[in-house]
Amino acid sequence: MLEQPEFAITDTAALRALVHGHGWVTMVAAAAGEAPEVSHLPVVLDPDDPHGLTVLGHLNRADPLAQRLGDHDAVLIVQGPDGYVPATFYEAGPYTPTWDFVVAHLYGRPEILGPDDTYRLLSLTVDHFEAGRPDPWRLSSVAGYAHRLLPGVLGFRMRPSRVAGKAKLSQDKPREVVDRVVRALRTDPVHRNPALADAVRAARP
């Protein structure tokens, strides 16, 4: 990823919020001289690291990525709001269309978890994604069944050794232009994108 200081996310709280709100991530790992393996999985922030970016995640042991997990470095790609921004949204110029986005890359070597810690992370994952429901479902309601599935699950913890966060959200445009982009992202019949609109507004100069 092209790292540009003007778009960098360096605040740990902002990065934690990104992971917390966008827990479906892409993971990439590769051994030297081999093709990279890529997979997609849910992650949650590790409650034992309340101020950091340690994450917990799990894969099916049959996933090709699981075969090398823990032996090599990996990267987790956390994707926040993103979308196409037509040039006409600026109502000024000359400008060209662009793609605004929020993303973070978490680099590190995953630590494989044992059965008890894997069950705990599965329970935490369910609790996280059920949190907004009026009557949250709990993994403990099928504890016996869940424990029978554990041999097929590979849980891991990853404490990033390096983090690259980027929020490219029209910050390089004048404030009045950014305000027009926000309005258009909320109302345009084709490229309406309320989540991106909120992110652009929060980042405006």
Automatic annotation (TrEMBL):
InterPro entries: Split_barrel_FMN-bd (IPR012349), TR_PAI2-type (IPR007396). Pfam families: FMN_bind_2 (PF04299). This is FMN-binding negative transcriptional regulator. It comes from Actinomadura parmotrematis. Coiled coil: none annotated.
